[in-house]
Design goal:
The chain has helices at 9-14, 90-102, 107-113, 118-157, 163-169, 171-180, 182-188, 203-222, 232-239, 242-246, 254-263, 267-284, 291-298, 302-322; strands at 27-28, 40-42, 44-49, 56-61, 67-71, 85-88. The protein starts with 8 loop residues before the first helix and ends with a helix. The strands form two sheets. It has a four-stranded antiparallel β-sheet with strand order 3-4-5-6, with no helix packed on it. It has a two-stranded antiparallel sheet with strand order 1-2. The chain is built from 14 helices and six strands. Helices cover 56% and strands 8% of the residues. Among the domains are: 134-188; 203-265, no CATH class; 268-322. By secondary structure, it is an alpha+beta fold. β3 and β4 form a beta hairpin.
């Protein structure tokens, strides 16, 4: 027999047992969503035959639910980390996809991180949503009964609470029953309270009041050591009337609106005012007015400064003639 096999006694004794097409287990889990990724924790292997090539195909099943397959046999050490196709992703993988999706990552980014196609990630997210809907349907009736009891007990504890107070204090229960048990909800909730009509606003009086306040504030803003651009927003915030002068009520304040349109500044208007203030400071201190120094002190971009130079020169010329 040894002669027929072209072997001797020593070589015959050195022959190692056959370890199979994929080696001896355990094998690595190749689920990128699992904490044990690439660790040898897979103990279940089912070997099948490839119909086209008759090569062995190993189906590796991990306890995390991830099942992958690989055509064999393995020829190098790196082959054990290769996947031919995935049979099942499992709950661990789906949970990780949901976590990444909730954190704000796009489907494309998730697919890149987990080495799966965007189509697969989208399909798994949809699967998770459908599963949640099925669970919700099963538990819906039990939740309705539970929340009914809790809301009725809460209403006994707080008999003076109206609908708005109940909503504020018991948001989850209130909203669930109002959406899923409308008939019971409407028949058991306190009656809606009649709204107390608020007196009508005297817009003429308010217009005059705002007009006077804005005139005073405008003078104060012009006298600030550090100039502030005069805008509707700046005035509205300082007087706490931003909503009235910027949104739906502005047409009811004609004098206020007219004053604002006269005093609010564009970006260029504000740049000119800042530069004129610096020029005045130079003149008061008896220093020569050099425009590049004005531009530097006001921190105006050069291309913007070139546009306002004619007005600055005109102002400077008038001031020199006056003095």
């Amino acid at each position: 027999m040894l002669y027929f096999l072209d072997q001797d006694i020593e070589s015959f004794l050195e022959i190692e047992p056959d370890q199979g097409a994929f080696g001896l287990g355990p094998w690595p889990c190749l689920n990128k969503a699992a904490t044990h990724y690439q660790q040898d924790v897979v103990n279940k292997l089912v070997i099948k035959r490839d119909y086209t090539s008759t090569n062995p195909v190993g189906e590796f099943s991990c306890s995390c639910g991830f099942i992958y397959a690989r055509k064999g046999p393995d020829k190098t050490f790196k082959d054990k980390y290769r996947i031919s196709y995935i049979e099942k992703y499992g709950d661990t993988w789906r949970t990780r996809v949901q976590e990444l999706h909730k954190s704000g990552l796009s489907i494309y980014r998730i697919s890149k991180d987990l080495e799966a196609s965007p189509t697969t990630v989208g399909r798994q997210l949809k699967y998770c949503e459908n599963s949640k809907e099925n669970i919700t349907t099963v538990n819906k009736e039990a939740l309705i009964e539970k929340y009914r009891i809790e809301l009725l007990m809460s209403m006994k504890r707080f008999p003076n609470y109206g609908r708005s107070e109940l909503l504020e204090k018991f948001k989850k229960i209130y909203r669930f029953l109002s959406e899923n048990d409308k008939e019971w909800f409407n028949s058991n909730m306190p009656n809606k309270r009649k709204k107390v009509q608020v007196g009508t606003v005297d817009w003429t009086k308010r217009d005059q009041e705002y007009y006077e306040k804005i005139k005073v504030l405008y003078k104060e803003l012009l006298e600030l050591d550090k100039p502030v651009r005069i805008t509707r927003s700046a005035i509205g915030k300082r007087l706490n009337i931003l909503e009235r002068i910027e949104k739906r009520h502005v047409f009811k304040l004609p004098y206020t609106n007219q004053l604002l349109s006269e005093i609010i500044e564009s970006v260029q208007d504000f740049q000119i005012r800042r530069c004129l203030k610096v020029i005045d400071e130079f003149l008061e201190d008896g220093e020569p007015v050099i425009l590049w120094r004005v531009q530097k002190k006001c921190a105006v971009q050069l291309h913007d400064f070139k546009k306002i130079i004619p007005k600055l020169e005109e102002y400077l010329s008038r001031e020199k003639e006056r003095n």
